[in-house]
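Handout, section B. The chain below has 473 residues.
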Amino acid sequence: MPHLPFAQISIVVLLLHAAGVVAAVHALMHTRTPQGAVAWVFGLVLLPYFTLLPYLFLGSKRFSGYVEMHHSRLARLRRLDDPAQLALSAEYPPHTGAQRYQAISKMLGAPFLSGHRLRLLVNGAASFEAMFAAIAGAEHYVLVQFFIIHDDELGQRLQGALLERAAAGVSVHVLYDGVGSHDLPPTYGAVLRAGGVHIHRFATRRWRNRFQLNFRNHRKVVVVDGWRGFVGGLNVGDEYLGRKPPLAPWRDTHMELQGPAVADLQLAFDENWQWITGQPLALLAPRASGGEATSLIAATGPADAQETCSLFFVQAIHAARHRLWLTTPYLVPDSAVNAALQLAVFRGVDVRILIPAIPDHRTVFLASTLYAHESVRAGIRVFRYQPGFTHQKVLLVDDDTAAVGSMNLDNRSLRLNFEIAALNIDTAFAAEVERMLAADFEQAVEIDVSDYSRLHYLYRVLIHVARLLSPVL
């Protein structure tokens, strides 16, 4: 193969640097955070040979069609002063404790409502047994959305359950994320479609989306007949049942809720569905559950005008008066969440964070390690879960509030992914979550303030380098 002349090499280098400068200007104008903008600008200007291609995958910050639809739907359906919303709030008056979180309600345009029956689902076996039982009892429709669906034993069990309901005349709708489910074979969806199931891959852009790694739909939602809803951290795959070492046993949490907030859970699904198909779904109103818990569905994402996931955490942390326990597989908080956690310590709040002791994503784990040590120095108690990998996303505030959902404490969840959680105010449910987390902490090792100094110097350098990548992790 002949070598390129020096002049041609020079032209290629100049063109790469010119393209890097153009991309750097784009990054400067569209990157959401100053830290991210600095990282991209310097990388694109100085090392375009290594950063241009990743920027094509990670740098896109616009999907205007979805944003416009999202905002129009919020204006039409999510006005808290709308007469229908006011009537619903009068029928299901929220617990007085919801007042501490009214900023979240106003930010999302979603009301706190009482009248919910809640069920905590610990780990994959209990969660999927509950979801499959609900699906088996569906009479009208089933809505299913997961970030990851694998064509393994659990995925095939889901496939069979959905085909059975479709054959019984139930309308079945499935959404999955194209990147999260990148290894899902086309035959999986083909079998479902042949059996009458409506299944689509979520995309924020109808072109070039296969090359867009940002704006993934990380939500995990199941709704049956408009009155039974499930939300949490579990995807569909055998690893979520703890069948794939070395991450086994897999520790995760889901929950079921029945009551008026299920309407907002299925509304979040319907918005995604309408974007993909162009057709809204015919949805049923939730039936009365006989429960008393107050709940709000927090559906956040990059289409929002504000960084709603980050603000959700900030407000929930600020509401804590004596206890704040949270679990996350990835501890890479932004500056706002980090500051809120530190301020909670100064208020005398018992702040504890549970994170994994083993990685599923090496770079994120390294960055999390540094943030964990810095958190400990700030007075936050950080624990590493020992039996296996912990993937749960749970927040416990004081003695009455608990949130379960898909939100991680990393840049992807806080700014780039579509996420969803149920924020619940109920002392009985909070007590159940407390017992669950207390058992988790008992199986964890607390990080000591002196542990950082015991790390090998080169490892310390490595975790500091990993933190530089936090804006894109």
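Note. Residues 206-211 have pLDDT under 50 and may be disordered. Compare this with the example in section A.
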